[in-house]
Structures are given as structure tokens and as C-alpha cells.
Amino acid sequence: MLSCRDVTERVTDYVEGAMPFGQRVSLWMHLAMCRHCRAYLQQYRDTIAIMNQLPDEPPPPECRDELLRRFRDRKP
Ligand SMILES: [Zn+2]
Description:
By secondary structure, this protein is mostly helical. The protein has one domain (4-73). Helices cover 75% and strands 0% of the residues. Helix 1 packs parallel to helix 3 (35-53). The longest helix has 19 residues, at 35-53. It starts with a helix and ends with a helix. It binds zinc ion. Zinc ion binds at residues 4, 7, 30, 34, 36-37.
């Protein structure tokens, strides 16, 4: 069974579709039981959505990477 820490560390792979099926199933099982990680995943998706909606001048890749890195390092 995944821990909350495992989920937060892997959420990027999950959202980007880079996670193998077996791991996705484990993550789903955790999400089904853990509202904290559900909220975390929702916040992560909101962050991506906001970044994707930025008008005209998208942030440089370094900026996006930095945001993702900070998000990943954040404690749930
Ligand atoms: Zn959790």
C-alpha cells in the first residue's frame, strides 16, 4: 500500500500519464481512502490548469519546472 508520501512523490508521473498501470491502481486505491491525497491531487491539477491558461506569454520552461519542483517538495 502506498503512503501519502509515495503519492505526493509520484503525482507528477500520474498526472502526466507516465505511471505504469500497476502503480496507477495502487495510487487509485490510496486516493479512494485518503481525502488528503485527493485534495493534493486536485490542487496539483488546478496548478497545471492555471499555468496552461496563462495568456500570450507562457512562463519559460525554467519557471514551470521551478513551480513543479516546489509543488513536489511541499509537505502534504
Ligand atoms: Zn494519502
